[in-house]
Design brief:
Layout lengths: L3 E10 L2 E11 L2 E6 L6 H8 L7 E6 L2 E2 L4 H5 L2 E4 L11 H11 L4 H15 L14 H13 L5 E5 L7 H17 L3 E6 L2 H4 L4 E6 L2 E6 L1 H7 L5 H8 L7
Parallel strand pairs: 3-8, 3-9, 6-7, 7-8
Antiparallel strand pairs: 1-2, 1-4, 4-5, 9-10
Length: about 240
């Protein structure tokens, strides 16, 4: 069974068609949602997190219908948003405990999950530090730990490397790839950076709200008659290389 199923989904804001008849299945591993600004990535994430409902089509997550089982669906997902969302004046622990309480987690469970995720991320020694004292890359890792606390079936990463230095960006991308290989979890990673999608198990290319192509980097290059994912992406979305 697919962890994420999107069937003929469309969404408009006034006269603007932000998503147009998008369909795909994601059963696990790392799926890159690749597209430039305005492609529809943020709109799709807004639908997946229940902020808005699609005008047409159906979304199911872990077998639960987003429209009729929103509470159950939200319990199955973890999200790292594009915009920073930590309280910088609170400690790492306080931020994570607050999130755990919102999810209705038991105190002892929260403690164990926080220790597990921060230890894995190499941040357990920062437990009592205010988030303001952390680097941008480590703040992002705290947000990832928060998203993973509930053992989600679906992890949503919305342009999660924006504003990070190259080393921090590379570290975060590799870490999430590793997680997908170790846990029964599906990741949907929204990005406009082709290199972040190179090794994805599945790539979905969006352009101006439309689903333009789907496959691995090799498959997309082959389909478009190109030799690299970058050239394939430019060809598929009809972008000039010097744009």
């Amino acid at each position: 069974m697919s962890i994420l199923s999107i069937k003929s989904v469309s969404k408009s804001y006034g006269d603007v068609r932000a998503l147009n008849d998008v369909s795909f299945e994601h059963s696990g591993g790392f799926c890159a949602l690749l597209g430039q600004n305005g492609a529809g990535k943020s709109t799709l994430f807004q639908l997946l997190t229940g902020l808005f409902l699609p005008d047409e089509g159906e979304i199911t997550i872990a077998g639960k219908n987003l429209k009729t089982q929103i509470v159950e669906v939200l319990s199955e997902i973890g999200v790292v948003f594009q915009q920073p969302s930590l309280d910088l004046d609170m400690t790492v622990e306080a931020n994570l405990l607050f999130h755990g309480r919102l999810r209705g987690m038991k105190k002892e469970t929260m403690g164990l999950r926080i220790e597990e995720e921060l230890t894995r991320l190499g941040l357990i020694d920062d437990l009592k530090r205010p988030c303001r004292a952390l680097s941008g890359g480590n703040r992002r890792k705290v947000e990832l730990a928060r998203a993973l606390m509930g053992n989600p079936r679906l992890l949503l990463m919305d342009e999660a490397t924006v504003g990070l230095d190259p080393a921090s960006r590379d570290s975060l991308v590799k870490y999430v790839y590793e997680l997908c290989g170790e846990r029964s979890m599906a990741t949907l990673w929204a990005t406009h950076l082709v290199d972040e999608a190179e090794n994805a198990d599945q790539i979905l290319v969006l352009d101006k709200g439309r689903q333009k192509a789907e496959g691995t980097a090799h498959e997309l290059a082959e389909q478009s008659g190109q030799t690299s994912l970058l050239d394939a992406f430019l060809a598929i979305t009809e972008k000039e290389k010097d744009a």
